[in-house]
Write a structure and sequence with these properties.
This protein is mainly β and about 400 residues long. It is about 5% helix and about 45% strand. It is globular, with a radius of gyration of 22 Å.
Length: about 400
Amino acid sequence: MKRLFCVLLALTLAACAPASSGVASLPDSEPAAAASALTSALSSVNETGFFSYYYDPANSEAGTRLGRWDFRDGTMHIPCTVPDCDHTGAKCEARLSGYPLVVLEDAVYTLELDDSRGLYELSVRDADGTHPRLVGTLGYWNFVGADEEFLYGFCEGAYGRVSRADGTETFLVHGLGVDFSDYGRVLGVWQDRFVAVSWDWSREEPARLCLLDRDGAVTEVARIDPVRFSDYNCVLIQNEILYLDRPTGDVMAVHVETGEVRTVSQALRPYNALEGDDFYKCQRWYLLKVEDTPIVRVVDLVDDHLEQAVFRVNEDGTVSQLPQCQEFRDYDPELGSGYNSQPEPVTVMDQWGEELMVCCAVQCFTYENEDGTFWATQNVYALTSVEDYLAGRENYREFSSEE
């Protein structure tokens, strides 16, 4: 079992704090008698908008701040309620130090390093990102889900939970090692359990698909030949885990309960090829989803330049190319010499109801300081409908900035 856990928990832990918070482990604790539904913490969206780190190179003294792209009014807000705050000083309550966000429907959590103690402060904010309050001081956690009482995730090689009320840490399973940041993912929640996938970087052991209960119990669903499994390229769609088959580029699916494997599509085979040293082109691809539709971003390296195309996988296994590309605005080749100005495909950031949060353009601008004139870029975000995106239509409602 210990070995299974060690293989399971990859990419769910980035790095641990240099010191432990010293909270006692309670491996035999009983779960709440009437626990609320387990939800995923992998999305950056709640009913108030899309949350992300916001950094303006031309205003570097402001540091990194929390940005909220409001779905109701189409405006980007810096969520701060400090009177007369210009959002550049330390008093701004939207200032962040660059650690993870956990966006839930009723709250937003941030985890930030306390340099004086080498620990992390967990703070909770209102659903719109304002009014931060300290919950507690913890080790470094990577949270993947929540219910009404706890945040669930991984810390220092253990799986556990943190109280949303006071920050109390409970480690449910120990002995998971120190750093699995390269070897797996939690893909979401299915029937009140986390769906996790993990792999062995050396490809000596099979990739494993598992279900993880909120009390720490693990159910192994399936094992996949390590030669065939393309590491990060996996998503959860309804009751199946989809992944890319390395030698072929086929889209495969594994049922999360039975472990049954089926082929979803073979239509991308012409784009895949062995490039030497057991490396296939599809290892650079990205397997995503929009609602229940698999999306594959095909990446090809041509003359040291990345060329990308996006395909939707249809129900019959065929694929349709999505032509939407980001607009590259106000690019000055004299200032941006050497910069790759080739448009990239429109990027889907998250989903809100029947609409998608997308990056539809890149805005170039110049700014000046005492060292001269510089240029920089910022992403332009917009909403578009799921229907328009999957049909290849460019129909965007761009966000404006309150600043």
